[in-house]
Specification:
The structure is a single chain. By secondary structure, the chain is of the alpha+beta class. It folds into two domains: 57 residues; 142 residues, no CATH class. The protein has five helices and ten strands, in the order H-H-E-E-E-E-E-H-E-H-E-H-E-E-E. The strands form two sheets. Strands 1, 5, 6, 7 and 8 form a five-stranded antiparallel sheet that branches. The chain has a five-stranded antiparallel sheet with strand order 4-3-2-9-10, with no helix packed on it.
Length: 206
């Protein structure tokens, strides 16, 4: 995916510089209209190349989504009333462990769905797990008892989900949304956190 996208960005970059160079030459020949048009086109191509570069950087941490993917495996272990430990193993073998307050294990994710045209250059639906938390069953508990929330997303130079929410990706993006799921943590259990084209879901590991 990234290779095709990088190639498209490189082509836009080279084309932009070539068109700008042609505009500079036209200005030297005093062809002002042609120079202005070429310069505008060159700047547009360079802007598109910069956008592609930002997307490539922003996609670091996101995983391509095809039908259904295992985003993480979670094992919960109660340690006290309404208190449990969650051990999370990611597909790259990265391990995280958190002590959470509540009756259920909660996780959410960012999901980016691209238009079919963007698929041609290698952009496909992508996801990134964002945070985990403890969730209380009772609304009163949710209002008054301690909350525990931890970030899962890795820091990135370009926050692509933030860019998408500002409508800065134009016609490339079909939809951007958040999805969440939770599962009871009252006893020892192991679950797979899965991401489908409709959002997050959890399945017990037997």
């Amino acid at each position: 995916m990234t290779l095709r996208l990088a190639f498209a960005g490189l082509c836009l970059l080279v084309a932009g510089f070539l068109v700008l160079r042609a505009g500079y030459r036209a200005a030297g020949d005093r062809r002002w209209t042609g120079s202005a048009l070429r310069s505008l086109l060159g700047l547009l191509l360079l802007t598109l190349a910069a956008l592609v570069g930002a997307i490539i950087i922003g996609l670091r941490g996101y995983q391509a989504l095809t039908l259904e993917e295992v985003a993480a495996t979670v094992t919960t272990q109660p340690v006290a009333p309404q208190r449990f430990r969650a051990t999370i193993v990611f597909p790259d073998r990265r391990l995280a462990m958190y002590e959470l307050a509540g009756d259920a294990f909660y996780v959410d994710a960012h999901i980016l769905k691209w238009h079919p045209l963007a698929n041609l250059v290698g952009l496909h639906t992508a996801f990134e797990l964002d945070r985990v938390a403890g969730r209380y069953n009772d609304v009163l508990d949710e209002r008054h008892k301690p909350h525990t929330t931890y970030e899962l997303a890795r820091p990135n130079f370009v926050d692509l989900f933030f860019v998408a929410r500002r409508r800065l990706l134009g016609p490339l993006l079909d939809a951007e949304y958040g999805s969440a799921a939770f599962v009871a943590a009252g006893g020892p259990a192991t679950y797979e956190v899965r991401v489908s084209t409709t959002g997050l879901l959890m399945r017990p590991v037997r």
